[in-house]
Amino acid sequence: MKREMLEIYFVMGSNNCKKDPLLVLREALEAGITCFQFREKGEGALTGQAYEKFASDCQQLCAAYQVPFIINDDVNLALKLNADGIHVGQNDLAISTFREQAKGKIIGVSVHNVHDMREAIADGADYVGIGPIYTTQTKKDAQPPTGVTALKTIRKQFNTFPIVAIGGITEANANKVRSAGADGVALISAICHSTQIKTTVENLRRTV
């Protein structure tokens, strides 16, 4: 996976947005995000046909802007829609299942420390998401924030492996996170709740 694809990595579900989520995604794509992860989880999340329809609509938007479409933690949906990739936790089965059935697709894995990092690489990850870097309200069961310490440690040991940082990242702290070794920043609230998405993404791109 090209590391520049992780630069501005937008993660979103319908319940993260204060207005039409497809409009939010379109604005983010027009503003220049480099990757999109469909993450429909938590209170108020869509299910069933509505869930699949929303995913498909997001995928079509991403295709129109030639931005990779990644699905969070749902191997079956990723295979059904022929998504560009999947992002999972430390789940060997999901990684091997997806890899067997979807040759050449992108696999991202969430990691929290050097041990997780080694396992993710051994399991065949194409990139990792490290976090939460800072406190986040988006994921209720998130582990304690690591700050940039773990990120620096992991980058030092794995100096070329693609890394995106996630968790409480904003326009104000993105530069610090990039300086600590992340190839890119993954954001939910910073974009979903922005009243000026174009400006927000432009500011984030200046940290690249």
Rounded to the nearest angstrom, the distance between the terminal CA atoms is 17 Å
Instruction: For the largest sheet, list the strands in their spatial order.
Output: 1-2-3-4-5-6-7-8
Assign the CATH superfamily: Aldolase class I
**Mean pLDDT, rounded to whole units?**
93
Task: Determine the strand fraction and express it as a percent band.
Answer: 15-25%
The largest β sheet comes out as: 8 strands, parallel, barrel
User: Given the C-alpha coordinates, what overall shape results?
Assistant: globular
Annotated CATH architecture: Alpha-Beta Barrel
Count of DSSP H/I helices = 9
Helix content range of the residues, please?
25-40%
Please tell me how large the radius of gyration is: 16 Å
Number of domains: 1
Counting helices, strands and paired strands, the structural category is alpha/beta
CATH topology: TIM Barrel
Strand/helix succession: EHEHEHEHEHEHEHEHH
SSE arrangement:
Elements: E1 8-12, H1 21-31, E2 35-38, H2 48-64, E3 69-72, H3 75-81, E4 85-88, H4 92-101, E5 106-111, H5 114-123, E6 127-130, H6 149-157, E7 163-166, H7 174-179, E8 184-187, H8 189-192, H9 197-205
Parallel strand pairs: 1-2, 1-8, 2-3, 3-4, 4-5, 5-6, 6-7, 7-8
Helix pairs in contact: 1-2, 1-9
Describe this structure in words.
With 208 residues, this protein is of the alpha/beta class. It has a single domain, classed as Alpha-Beta Barrel (TIM Barrel). It contains 9 helices and 8 strands. The chain has an 8-stranded parallel barrel, surrounded by 7 helices. Strand 5, helix 5 and strand 6 form a beta-alpha-beta unit. Helix 1 runs parallel beside helix 9. The longest helix is centred in the N-terminal third of the chain and has 17 residues.
